[in-house]
Design goal:
about 250 residues, mainly alpha
Length: about 250
Amino acid sequence: MKKKNSIIFIFMILFLSSIVHSKSLRNFHFMKIYTLYEESKKELREEHFDNAISILEKIKKNNVANIKNDKIQMHLIYAYYKNLNFNTALKNTEEFIHFYPKHPNIDYVIYMQCLIKISLDKNIFFNILPIEYHKNDINHAVNAFFQLKNFIYQYPNSFYVINAKKNLIYLKNRLSENAFKILKFYFSHKEYIAVINRGEEMIEKYSETPAARKALIYIEKSYKALKIFDTAKKISKIILLNKTQEI
């Protein structure tokens, strides 16, 4: 009996010791993650984005307890964006939205996603290489445009709405200029029906842009080329009215 009690006593000591050790390890792990996290914030403040990314990715990889995982992901989005690594930044926004769809800062992440898509559209290489900007793929611009419209509708009280509206104006001009170049291509090939259709679409979508007003001139010329003079005369009056309003 005495021997049995001794075994139970030893077992209890070992069990309690393992609990204390486990708790100690958890505390050590938490302190290590916290120290690295604070270090990453310092690197971000000092705009050492490579260093910040390295630390944050290390935390993310070893953070089995998911301590501050949402904040780590948000910092990674920002760091990759500022480091011009737009594809990885975009991937991180998609992960965040998947895992934290009701996060209190979800508006920030969605807005960052829009900015990343705008940056992907601009594409830094077009500033270096002798390639005409508006000849590149507009898919990112279109996606950002509709996502920004949806963002403004869904989060009307967001801190980022004012900037989002400015971005939307930029994208309207970007897309209308692209449409205008296509319109001029049609006109140069005497495809007047295509010019009229493209022009009307531009006026419907981007009526307040300079490119839409320029499109009216080509619509008027196209109606004249098609010998539809009554409509051409109406378009001419609209062009004149726009000029009067600009003065």
